[in-house]
What does this fold into?
Amino acid sequence: MKTTGELHNRLAPDKKMGSGEWVDIAGLIAPKQAVDNLLDKIESGKLKTIRDVEDAFREMHKSYYDWEWTWSCKRIEEEEGKSVDKFTPADVIRIVERWKKSVVDLDKMLYEDARKEFTLSSMTGFGIDGGDEEKKLDFEQVRGEFESNSVVAAIQDHIKKKTALGDGLIKRLEKIRS
It folds into this structure.
């Protein structure tokens, strides 16, 4: 991507499906219109077998990210007060910075919540027959140490990956010329 025109082409959704209401159908979040279309095909007999319905679900699943972008794009346009074909690289950089801050702030909240699970007061039931040191050792043998805990490590890894993703996109956007 080297020009603002290419940026606009990348941002424009290539599917109409997804801009309206979304629903949960058996754990698959999908546009209500897509679910209504599926039900119409079942009721009309266009989908006759379980295999046909399964294939339709697979197709819906496969389309999720395209539909998600259509919905997200509409929401971003509402938030920004202009259509994506009017966005400048600076607009997109501002949106990416806001996204990155939100992701990292949420992960930091998860990290601090996880930290609470490793406080002495949370170690109730561990090392009952000993003092605080015995309780701490017993707890660590069962749950491990905070910094090496798999959940904590996953949160830290997520922060690194999403920060790198946002920073990489921003670097590419900074190179775009009008």
